[in-house]
Amino acid sequence: MSRAVAVNQDGSVPALPVGTTLLHIGLPKTGTTTLQRGAAVNRDQLLRQGVCYPGVAFNHRDPAAALMQRPLGWRGRGAVTHGRRVWDELIREANSSPAHRVFISSEFICESDDHQARRFRAELGEQLHVAITVRGFAELLPSNWQQAIKAGHTGGFEQWLEDVLRRRQAPTVRTFYRRNDQAAIVGRWTGLLGPDNVTVVIADKQHPDRLITTFEQLLGLRPGTLAGRPLGGYAANRGLSAAEAELVRRVNLTMHEQRYDWRRYTSLIRHGLIARMQENRRPRPDEPDLRLPGWTARDALRTARSYAEMIRASGCRVIGDPAALTAPLPTVDHVEQPTGLPLDAVVEGIAGVLSAAEGLGPFFDRSADGLERRKVSDPLLDRVFDAEETRRVLNAHRSTRHLRMRALGVAAGARIIDRAVRRISGRA
Amino acid sequence: MTAAPHAETTAQRVEPLPEGTRLLHIGIPKTGTTNLQRSAAYRRRELLEHGVCYPGRTLNHREAVSALMDRSLGWKNSQSTPGYGVWKRIENEVRTSPAPRALISHEFACESTDDQARRFVEALGPQVHVVITLRGFADLLGSSWQQYVKAGYLKPYRTWLRQVLGDPAKLKTTPTFYQRNDQAAIVDRWIRVAGTDNVTVVIADKRQPDHLINAFEDLLGLPTGLLRALPVGGYAGNRSLSMPEAELVRRINKIFREQNMTWDRYSDLMRNGLIARLQENRRPGPDEPLLTLPEWAAKKALVRARQYADAIAASGCRVIGDLDTLTLPVRTVPRLPDVTSVPVDVAQEAIAGLLSAEDGRGAFFDNPPEGVQGVNSYPASLRKLVRSEGGLELANAVRATKHLDDGTIAKVAAYRGISLADQKTKPVRRRVRRAVRRVGRSVRSRLR
User: Fold this and answer.
1) Nearest by CB to B339, which of A268, A343, A392?
2) For B308-356, what is each residue's pLDDT tens digit?
3) What pLDDT sits at residue A426?
4) In terms of CA atoms, which chain A residue is nearest residue B243?
5) B353 CA: distance to closest CA in chain A (Å)
6) For residue B10, is it within any domain?
7) Cβ of A400 under 8 Å from any chain B Cβ?
8) Same domain? B138 vs B214
9) Which domain holds residue B381?
10) In terms of CA atoms, which chain B residue is nearest residue A252?
11) Complex ipTM, two decimals?
12) How does A268-299 read in b/e, with b if 16+ C-beta sit within 10 Å?
């Protein structure tokens, strides 16, 4: 098989052959959200230009997790494993679409082991091309810790860094490398599909548009098609400042101590407290962000260099500047644990909890930036109530769904009895 | 009744009030009332054994006093006034009790107008004796503000101080402030209504915290120490919030107001959730700013305190304790700091309290706070349920859904039930559909 043209003379990337399925497997924290959101909000436009971005969700996390049989959430406390059906629906849509190319994207896929990767190949057929977006290993350590914090992790930054860099047996370390061992991931997919069917795209702060542009070119889209509107902090999943992250970490401690389950955690904290902080405030310029202490940066850059070398040696196409993977970054002497938190961060966080607990999402029944993660209609309710009432019932449902059916039944029953008693006894 | 000498020294023992006396303690707020009431409520039986009836079963007589005054509780969008029956029950208990003396206590009573004050005197009869506990006016400004904040108040400390220390006649905010804190007017009013001999002022003195308690023990003819303070946590003792704590609560109050949430919800989630947990689970750090006065405010407040002290001295009523305590200088800061950050543990405890309250589990995830063990926070209708097997979860669910109206909760329960049934029967229905299709196919193929 002759090798495809890596890059055109003008620096652009040739479109993948018609009939190709482009599978974007992450890595996490490489600008995936912006890309996926660009594809999701422009889904119709994509289809008109011959690209199917299947489903209605903003990425393909659930179908991918279903095929991988990967549980989402806290193991033993509310983790969900989607049924195979969720993946089959995606495949059905992709196969029946008139589009020339199919685009599937979820950063969970990069966690695949050999076995799971083979499943993707088996399902997606011959003309499969995998895109792997990568970023400097050292540079993404802070955002990875943060992401763990946003998912309920309770360990401090420095401890986590030590665990990760010394590859200790500790929570999140194994998952971390499953997602971030760039050499292993690139090696796995090139081994499986051949280097010609794998493209590595290097995300680079110097060229923030590169990612979007490269995907547009790969998919044969007109420039600008994947551009989304500028995103709010929630939709863009903006990084937290050190103080914001500390707030979330502290709340996580409470949630774990009190044995909250995953579902309640995501609805109150991820899509309540954190969401509202991300959206409604911007860290002040003097608010410290998370920086690596010197020794960890040195260690991490060593790893980054070995990854870069192995990517180069893998023979797959690399788009972007490999030097960006090993660029030095600002460091601190040691990590300062915040003792005071910005008042407005705490206020927004609490407002988010208040709103989410009422079933109103993070923003008191408003959607931020067109991003509505809440269910606001239901075929069953729509048949009986008007839209307004359906919305109210669904909000109330969200605020009570953590109660067991028996408890909710008793609460409702008690109310009805109470009401009857009041009516009979004539008390208003 | 004998007229008492003025300004007895602190060491002097006070004669008990004559048998048959009903002692009405009207506050004022922030003078140690909660501690006194807690001791009385906790040792209700001992009090009775020593001839004092502390009627009712609650901590204090807030509802009864409000009922008699026809004073509403809560916010404008959701206020309620307890029915007169609540007072009547207390009054009847006092009348029928074999105990020779009675104690009725709530600081709302100090807000009474002449007319309302007369209602108390008429209801309790000629043998009423009114006790007014006072503390330095300058000393209680900070704690007064944070008390308003704990009830949903929105204005910043600085603004409030400026307004409160301006012309009282022009005061637009917290209108109850001078009803509660114009010490001269309050003493004067009750003397007018009840008679000079039937009013005693007790001066609270931080340096001698037992002093106030001892005065009540003496007046009620109780053995010394019977009303001694119970060990209480910050919640039960209603600890004052620090400046960052109060500022955080004030900012959240704004959200409650913007979202038009009700008083009931505020009281469940904030007063008995977020705030309660702050009070109980933390103690302000040594460097944490408290609600001290800026110098300008202290100067103004002490002038007013002096006027009050002079007026009380001239009123002729009995004073237990040292009136000069009312005008002692207070701690000040040159300028109030701006609160831009809060200690991490403030945020953590606040959110934990809110989460717990959202689940109907009080502020402490079903654990009782220090000093209120044995006092059940569940309403009477739920108490039996709480004690039953698995009942706690159900009772908590009842509390966690209290804010939903009857219609909504019925709809939600129905929706949950139907969706659940729908989900559970789905595989069965799918199998049935498939079976029907198979039968159809085989019938058709045989017909062909």
Assistant:
1) A343
2) 999 999 999 999 999 999 999 999 999 999 999 999 999 999 999 999 9
3) 67
4) A343
5) 10
6) no
7) yes
8) yes
9) 241-288+341-403
10) B348
11) 0.85
12) bbbbbbbbbbbbbbebeeebeebbbbeebbeb
How far does A254 lie from chain B, in Å, by closest CA? 6
> In angstroms, rounded to a whole number, what is the distance separating the alpha carbons of residues B31 and A96?
78
Q: Calculate mean pLDDT across residues B240-260.
A: 96
Same structural domain for residues B253 and B272?
Answer: yes
CB A106 within 8 A of CB A60: yes
Determine the 3-state secondary structure of A320 from DSSP. Answer: coil
Question: What's the CA angle centered on A393, arms A392 and A397, to 5 degrees?
Answer: 120
In a domain, B15, yes or no: no
Task: Tell whether B213 and B265 lie within a shared domain.
Answer: no
Cα distance from A421 to chain B (closest Cα, Å)? 13
Residues in A closer than 8 angstroms to B340, CB to CB, are 342-343
Residues of A within 8 A of B365 (CB-CB) are: 258
Question: Using CA atoms, how far apart are residues B114 and B327, in angstroms rounded to an integer?
Answer: 27
Residues 228-247 of A with CB under 8 A from B: 246-247
Number of domains in chain B: 3
Burial level of B426, CB count in 10 A (0-12/13-18/19+)?
exposed
Instruction: Supply φ then ψ for residue B200, to 5 degrees.
Output: -125, 135
Q: Does residue B412 sit in the same domain as residue B389?
A: no
Do B137 and B184 reside in the same domain of the chain?
Answer: yes
Q: Are residues B42 and B136 in the same domain?
A: yes
Do B21 and B93 meet the contact criterion of CB atoms below 8 Å apart?
A: no
| Contacts with A411 from chain B: Cβ below 8 Å | 394, 397-398, 400-401, 409, 413
Lowest mean pLDDT among A367-381, A392-406, B160-174: A367-381
Q: Compute the C-alpha angle A280/A284/A287, nearest 5°.
A: 120
Written as six digits, the tokens of A386 are 């008007």
The full set of domains in chain A, from first to last, is 21-237+291-332 (3.40.50.300), 375-428 (no CATH)
Cα dihedral sign, A201-A205-A211-A214: negative
Q: pTM of the predicted model, to two decimals?
A: 0.87
**Contacts B277 to A, Cβ<8 Å:** none
Phi, psi at residue A253, to the nearest 5°? -55, -45
